[in-house]
Amino acid sequence: MAWCPDRDAITIRAQVPGHREGEPMEVFQELVVRGEPRQIVETAEFICKLVADKWSRDVLAEEQVNKWSPGVKTLCFDRSRDERLPGAALFLTQKTDALTVTNIVPRESGQLAYGEYNALLSEFIDRFVQPAVARTGAQMDVSDPQADLERWLTPGAAKKLRAFCAVANKRSGASHPSDRKFWFDFVVAAHREGAAFPASTLARWLNEVGGWDEEWASKLSIQYEQARGLLEYADHQAVGA
């Protein structure tokens, strides 16, 4: 099995009929189990013992992944296809103080929908992770299946992006001077706070929540990424001057 693709390489979805602006955006859930080194080892071992039925451990995939990632142990679990969920491979990375589900990829071609990904993760958690942490005392943290802008931005920066979307002409992007001011206000705010807000996530939000079509969402996300890079470069130049 080939190395799993980065789930953040997201394809922007077209707007769906009946979509209303301002709703949270559907996202991939994340699972992290934290604890003392002994707890992490025992939790991983217990998960492997519990795996059964439609789930199994894929040792061959583990060998391939771990060969290219020395120093980091990754466990791989296979979930066979049924009428409810597609077949998939789940990757669980084990570090000294944490276990993290780094990806879930379909066994067949294509990409898992957000609902499919989260349903697979939930099943894995309910059947194997929850019983394991209950036994070892490790702490489990699962993120929400939906997120609004405040997951990535401060309330101030999020407000500026929403303001831009509310006033901008969605046929011309940020080309009009008044629209450009709102856009620059957002970009500068995101830069100043060091927001970990990827361009791919911005593109999705603009298209799915902000009311922009796919083409303009993509264009604005590219402009955002370029502007963030330029501002960061200017900061470095100013420090070195």
Quick overview:
By secondary structure, this protein is α+β, with helices and mostly antiparallel strands.
General description of the model:
This protein has 241 residues and is of the alpha+beta class. It folds into two domains: 28-143, Alpha-Beta Plaits (2-Layer Sandwich); 149-240, no CATH class. It is 46% helix and 16% strand. It contains seven helices and eight strands, in the order E-E-H-E-H-E-E-E-H-E-E-H-H-H-H. It has helices at 37-50, 59-67, 114-136, 155-167, 177-192, 199-208, 214-240; strands spanning 25-26, 31-34, 55-57, 73-79, 88-94, 98-106, 139-142, 146-147. Strands 3-4-5-6-2-7 form a six-stranded antiparallel sheet, sandwiched between helices. Strands 1-8 form a two-stranded antiparallel ribbon. Helix 4 (155-167) runs antiparallel to helix 5, helix 5 (177-192) crosses helix 7 (214-240) and helix 6 packs antiparallel against helix 7. The longest helix is centred in the C-terminal third of the chain and has 27 residues, at 214-240. The chain is elongated and about 60 Å long. The N and C termini lie far apart (50 Å). Residues 1-20 have low confidence and may be disordered.
Can you count the beta strands? Answer: 8
Number of separate helices: 7
Structural class: alpha+beta
CATH class of the largest domain: Alpha Beta
How much strand content do the residues show?
15-25%
Rg to the nearest angstrom? 21 Å
| Separation, N- and C-terminal Cα atoms | 50 Å
Mean pLDDT: 89
What low-confidence regions span 5 or more consecutive residues with pLDDT below 50? 1-20
Helix content: 40-55%
Mind describing the biggest β-sheet?
Answer: 6 strands, antiparallel
Order of strands in the sheet with the most strands? 3-4-5-6-2-7
CATH architecture of the largest domain: 2-Layer Sandwich
